[in-house]
């Protein structure tokens, strides 16, 4: 159980440092629709993360073969997911090195300030379908299945991953609701910093986690 939980925390941190949901949350909090949209977006992020890992765990638990064959298949799948994470991180680093160094607002954020509750909820759910999010969830589900956890223990592992992965969205939304005046300048500074630096840090973290997943697969 402890080994699985440590993997959930590491994978959750990789998801938490993902640029896209964090940046979306901050832009929503700095928009005129923050009261209507920020909490639905947060809810979509949490529900989507929990649901994605739950479904993936149910699917991985139904892998064919005897227990020994399942274990070998899980290791092979972990290996491919780890390789995919490393390649995804390297691709992000190469792409970032080719863009202008001056910070700029990503084009997809232009219309986010006009989101109402339902669109914000929908995008919070949909962001869990990004390739990086799906790979991390896949690695998490294989860790849970490979760990042979009981259903209650598997649920605990899923909750731990969800809490860690969504923490960088939940924390600013809740803090902004409790301390709006104090949080606004911090949100502006974080937004500017994320625009220029978060992609590189997130890519580096994904490469690191991908390497750990590969190591875990090779060690059996």
SSE order: HHHHHHHHH
Number of domains: 1
> What structural class results from the helix and strand content?
mainly alpha
Mean pLDDT: 85
> What is the multimeric organization of the chains shown?
single chain
**Count of discrete alpha- or pi-helical segments spanning 4 or more residues:** 9
Task: Summarize the biggest pleated sheet.
Answer: none
Categorize the overall geometry.
Answer: globular
Rg, please? Answer: 18 Å
Distance between the termini: 16 Å
Strand content: under 5%
Describe this structure in words.
This protein is an all-alpha fold and 220 residues long. It has one domain (2-219). Helix content is 81%, strand content 0%. The protein is built from 9 helices and no strands. Helix 1 packs parallel to helix 7 (151-165) and helix 3 (34-61) runs parallel beside helix 5. It is globular, with a radius of gyration of 18 Å.
Reconstruct the topology from this structure.
Blueprint: H1 2-16, H2 19-29, H3 34-61, H4 67-98, H5 117-126, H6 131-146, H7 151-165, H8 167-178, H9 180-219
